[in-house]
Amino acid sequence: MANPLNKRFPRELRNNIGKYLGLFFMMLIAVAFTGGYLLAANSMETILNGMKETYQIEDGHFVCDFEADDEAIKAVEQQGVTVYPDFYRQVPLDLDASGDGASGIQARMYANRNTINLAAYAEGRAPQSESELALDRVFMDNHNLHVGDTVKLEGKDFEIVGVCTLPDYQSLFENNTDFVQNALTFTVGQVTPDGLKTLSSDSEAYAYSFVFNDQSLDLAQRTDIEEDMIEALTDNDSVVSDFIDADDNQAIGYAIDDITADRTIFTVILFVLIAIMAFVFTVLTGATIESESNVIGTLLASGWRKSELLRHYLTMPVFVGLASVLLGLVVGTTLLSDPLKNLYYNSYSIPPYELHWDASIVFFTTVLPFVLLMLITVTGLLRKLRFTPLQFLRRETASRKRRSNLPLPDGLRYLSRFRLRVLLRNASHFVTLFFGITFASLLLLFGICLLPVIQNYAIEMKKAVVAPHQYILKTPLELEGTTQERDMYAAALRLIEDHDRIEANQDAIDAAERLNENKELMDAFDRLNENEALMDALDRLQDNDEFMDALERLQDNEPLMNAFDRLQGNDELMDVLDRLEDQQNLTDAAKRLQNNQALVDAAERLQNQSVLTYWLEWAQLNPDYVQAATRVAAGSTDPNDLAYVAALSDEERAGLQMVANIDAQTQADIELVQNADEQTRADIELLENIDEQTKQDLEYLENLDQQTKDDIDLLQDVDDATQADIDLLSDLDEQTQADIDLLKDLDDTTQADIDLVRAVDDATQADIDLVRSMDESLLDDVRLAADIDEDAHVVNTKDNSTGAIDQAEKFAMTSVEIQRAMTDKFETVTVYGIQPNSRYWTEIPVEDGVVYAGRGTVEKTVAQIGEAAEAFNRREGESYTITVTEATNNEADVSLYMTLADFNRLFGNDADYFNAYASGQELELDKRYLGRTIVPEDMDKISAQMEDSMGSFSRMMLFMAIPIYLVLVYLLTKTVIDRSARSISYMKMFGYQNREVNGLYVRPITYWVLFSLLASLPLIVGAIVGLLKIAFLRFSGNFPLIIPPERLLLIVVVGMMTYGVVAFLHVRRIKKVPLELAMKVQE
Amino acid sequence: MSEEAYLQIADLCKHYGEGEAYVEVLRGITTTLYRGEICVLLGPSGSGKSTFLNLVGGLEPADAGSIRVGETELTTLSDRELVEYRRRELGFVFQFYNLVGDLTVQENIEVCEYLSSNPLPMEPLLKSLGLWEHRKKFPHQISGGQQQRCAIGRALVKNPGLLLCDEPTGALDYNTSKEILALMEQVNREYGCTIVIVTHNDAIKHMAHRILRLRDGQLVEDSVNTNVQPAASLEW
């Protein structure tokens, strides 16, 4: 047959529905929240873990102060990674039409990504035109933005076309060192590459994502590679301003860390709650067992086994527990998972939600809590059932009897003694109540203390920002400089800022940069460039290659050139030569005859005696007549001779007479001419036949001075090639000739310059050509910038007043990692190098050899006063040993302070290195070199961001705490009233008023609740400090765990107010206790 | 009643406390009860009556001596065997009825019916107990006498060989007490169980077959009542 005791259960349930419902709903809520949360957490973790593959999340990234060159990237990739440039521009975003940047929102915009960190679109699409953008989903939700809305980036209109999640910004951390994410005034998004170009290049960050080629590397191997990457970048003159492994990147890992940490908190809260509920079950069932002690004794005496009774008394906890955990699981996973997931979706940019079940959810929210419930309840019941049947029969099981028999001080008033007895009789209830109240207070305090801790942190951090303005620089930037220096840096900035211009002229700029390396050549250019006319001449002449070659060759023949010069200066002569040049035969003849001056003279003289010459020629042609006449003149009468003579005319006779009478000179001339060879004679003949002009020319030549004649000789002796050159030069047009004239007047230096310039090789010449194709202003900038001394500090080009400059104080800062005191993780510690006697760090009197630590550093890390601590700089891949000698009082300050000189020595910087200014006045600095600006008010944002991030969690704690108060206080104190019902009835019968009875029974409960609330405060403060320490351990920074007294008071007030509801119910219950109860037989 | 010795007790000793608090509650009790007998155990308060009953019921161990119930020697049984012994052999009736408050009369009886492999039929039992009309009532809905009837029914339903009653009428008025005693008589007659009634009401001895009297832990009377009177005729 069925166990007849089972019939008790429905009646028990009906009779104590309030008790069981309280327990049931308490556990149901706890399980439902945890189950819903775990399902949401598991789903989100699955989604987040899958993002690496789906969205190609980087393994890390680094940011250079300036664009890294190909060599640097190549060197980095040789370490075993693939590098993807992922530049962004961060600009003000306005939601209203003003576009004045007053909203304080910063948008970090990327060009549409297609290789790494791919965007997930929750709605809409990727931007396709220059005026479209996609923004982060959480930011858009926070500002109620939608697809189709228009926002302004730097005052320019952009239409939102997509709601996206960038997988490397699952949490919107602007900087990795930020304490909390910021989805209110910071966002990320995508635009088209052209759209990105429309944004100010001032704000461009040269970020590079990387992926390890070998995805199986462990952390140590990755770290080694990353150190090598940094070294490769540094070796290639790249200044790394940021280097983050994905594991350390809060923007990537924070969300999943948060979920994991909350998962632990939820699970722990569930188990603690279940444990408390189990104790409540045990206490309540124990009370039932006590009240049924004689029945149990009877049943045991009748042969019932204890195991059977244990099962019986366990049945209700099993039923209620099982029902609550199962239903809780169903409710949680079906109804609460979605809202709970929104706790994260409202804060983190996670791709669209998909449900991912896991058996562990059932295990942790159903199986394990139930097992825990049973373990505690069974243990409690076994303890209650440990007595013999006789002890049950004799009611010797109740320890309350022993406790209530304790002697009390005689001095106590009756009422006090009575109340004390009530407490002692129900000690187990009140002890459980104490722990329940402690736990609920703990939840309550956790909920209401999170925000004050954060607010206090912000206040303390604000104190640590000692200057009204702190400017963190990318590179040392001098506020003062000469005009020339400022011009140079202004030129460099123009070059950098005008990216389009640079891109269009990149080849020319590269050429200019190469040319600039040839100092001698550039100096020559500089000098030549100053002579505009010369340069123009050179330009023109240089276009005539043939001519230039000729000139070059001739220039090597100095005497020739001199001769040429001289001759060319004599226009008349040149004209003559020109004309004679046209009569080549004549010239040749003259040339030949010139060697036989006597002959020429003779010929000339003979030419002057033209009659004689005629008759001589006639005589030569008629030798018979000449001989006959000669003989007749000698006395011959030979008829033939006479006949010949007779045949002569008178003229001929006279001619013969003239020939016969010529003088000796003439005779000699005649002989000379006659003896000349045929060519010579032809020459002479030619010369004799020249026209008058020619004759004059020849005569002119004859009359030249010796030098000129020598010159002509020289020119006439040149070889054919030279002659051709000369011919070429001679044919020059006027302009060319003028140019040549100009060149000829050059001084030695200029000539040397020209020689240098003309000696450049083809590649250089190509460069020169490119450079000369650049527009002048650009070239000026390039050349100005080229003069910058790369070893010198950059000079600010903005104007600041002398006063502002004077009060600005240089300092240096960097981040190192020091091991945390409580874990094996590392804390990011800011190291400051400041001026001794700083006007800003007035409370930190550093001097050489003295290192101050913020109190937070000492509290959170292994850097203790007087002990050497290892600090690691991941960006540099270097380790340093730092010994703290003093500590400040600021618990939120996780920094180290030393002199700037010590700082530079420690980190191996130049002695004059610095990278920040502290200033009481606002400074105008070149944005290009400005990393970020810190003002104390920045710390206020932390509160707002924190409230946004953790507010819901905080509210949830409050939501859980108050029902726990209610249920626990009600259940445990109700039993006290119930088991005292007969006594209450007696009291009424004795004549006590209800009010007085309340004073006897409700007041001790009230005292106890108040006592529990007050006495638990030290416990919960201790516990909360521990819990908050654990909770904040994952954050950078040290959080002074200040619990404001008014918050503690609030705990007591909330606790008492909650109890007030319960007390009201008890008063009603007492009022209903019937008088006749006292009259019933008591067994 | 038969001639079969059913409960044989020899040199039974029991003490409580140590040192100055040492009290010998039973000092060498020896007696034999026969199956089907009604035995009344008399004695003043503190004479050891309840202790005797508890030892026979296996609710606490004896210091020395022997208790044999049927073929079972109790003093050698383990706790588990004692439970089985009680389950199989015993019925208990106490001064206070110890009924389960949220079970009806019948259900309270069923609580022990559940333990037996050979229970008595419910309906005749309820009728014989005069509880048939009240079987569906809860204990707080019936009188003390009816509650005690119910308690007796609960003890009897297992059809035990030995029914131990500790002051069964102690909380009842005169008439009800007589009714209960008559009921026991009836039960003894109908079911043949051996009944030991612990009482300090001397009048009850007249309905018993055997009378035992204890004083200071010693058995000062062990007699057979040759003039058994019906319970209904008892007067005190």
Please give the count of helices of chain A. Answer: 44
The CATH architecture category of chain B equals 3-Layer(aba) Sandwich
The biggest beta sheet of chain B is recorded as: 6 strands, mixed
- What is the SS-derived class of chain A? alpha+beta
The rounded distance between the terminal residues' Cα atoms of chain B is 26 Å
- Helical amount among residues of chain B, as a percent range? 25-40%
* Estimated radius of gyration of chain A: 56 Å
What form of chain B results from the Cα inertia axes?
globular
Output the structural class of chain B.
alpha/beta
Distance between the termini of chain A: 30 Å
The tally of strands of chain A reads: 23
- Fourth-tier CATH superfamily name of chain B: P-loop containing nucleotide triphosphate hydrolases
Low-pLDDT residue intervals, each spanning 5 or more residues of chain A: none
Strand order within the widest beta sheet of chain B = 6-7-8-3-9-10
Number of strands of chain B: 10
Question: Judging from the principal axes of the Cα atoms, what is the shape of chain A?
Answer: rod-shaped
Whole-number tally of structural domains of chain B:
1
Q: How large is the radius of gyration of chain B?
A: 17 Å
Brief rundown of the structure:
Helix content of chain A is 61%, strand content 12%.
Note the topology.
The complex is a heterodimer of chains A (1083) and B (236).
Chain A: H1 8-15, H2 17-54, E1 60-64, H3 70-77, E2 81-85, E3 88-94, E4 105-111, E5 120-124, E6 132-136, H4 137-142, E7 150-153, E8 156-165, E9 186-191, H5 193-197, E10 204-212, H6 219-235, E11 240-245, H7 250-291, H8 293-301, H9 306-345, H10 359-384, H11 389-393, H12 399-404, H13 414-425, H14 427-464, E12 469-473, E13 477-478, H15 483-497, H16 499-504, H17 506-516, H18 519-530, H19 532-543, H20 545-555, H21 558-568, H22 571-582, H23 584-594, H24 597-608, H25 610-621, H26 623-633, H27 639-647, H28 650-660, H29 664-675, H30 678-689, H31 692-702, H32 706-717, H33 720-730, H34 734-744, H35 748-758, H36 762-773, H37 776-786, E14 794-795, H38 802-807, E15 809-819, E16 826-834, E17 852-853, H39 855-860, E18 868-873, E19 878-883, E20 886-887, E21 895-899, H40 900-906, E22 916-919, E23 930-934, H41 938-979, H42 981-990, H43 994-1033, H44 1045-1072
Parallel strand pairs in A: 4-9, 6-8, 13-14, 16-21, 17-20
Antiparallel strand pairs in A: 1-10, 1-11, 2-10, 3-4, 3-7, 3-10, 5-8, 6-9, 7-8, 12-22, 12-23, 15-16, 15-18, 15-22, 17-21, 18-19
Chain B: E1 5-16, E2 23-34, E3 38-42, H1 49-56, E4 64-69, E5 72-73, H2 79-89, E6 90-93, H3 105-113, H4 122-129, H5 144-156, E7 162-166, H6 174-191, E8 194-198, E9 210-215, E10 218-224
Parallel strand pairs in B: 3-8, 3-9, 6-7, 7-8
Antiparallel strand pairs in B: 1-2, 1-4, 4-5, 9-10
Helix pairs in contact in B: 3-5, 5-6
